[in-house]
Structure to design on (114 residues):
């Protein structure tokens, strides 16, 4: 039992030394698949990464659009409070209104630059 553990330790130490000498390539050296399989796997991983990046870009655009709509609705509601019989409540939302208006103007400026 002890001999087997000792042998395993030596083998793992040898692999670690190889890993240190070879650097990043050690994973490829220890991968026993054929070159064609490795290339195919690499291409598939690349395609998946591109797909994921595109999904993230779409999601970010949808989230920005949703945030813009929600902010517009909040601003509309606050303005309605200010103009109606609940004008005192409109003052309560003063800071929020200013923040939303600044956000909206900066969005408009960015859109005008494009």
């Amino acid at each position: 039992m002890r001999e087997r553990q000792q042998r395993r330790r030596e083998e793992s130490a040898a692999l670690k030394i190889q890993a240190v000498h070879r650097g990043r390539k050690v994973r490829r050296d220890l991968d026993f698949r054929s070159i064609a399989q490795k290339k195919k796997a690499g291409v598939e991983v690349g395609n998946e990464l591109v797909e994921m990046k595109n999904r993230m870009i779409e999601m970010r655009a949808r989230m920005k659009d949703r945030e813009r709509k929600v902010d517009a609705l909040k601003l509309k509601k606050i303005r309605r409070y200010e103009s109606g019989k609940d004008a005192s409540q409109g003052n309560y939302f003063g800071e929020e209104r200013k923040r939303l208006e600044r956000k909206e103007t900066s969005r408009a400026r960015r859109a005008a630059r494009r």
In short: The chain has five helices and no strands. Helices lie at 2-22, 26-30, 35-83, 87-92, 94-113. The two ends are 72 Å apart (CA to CA).
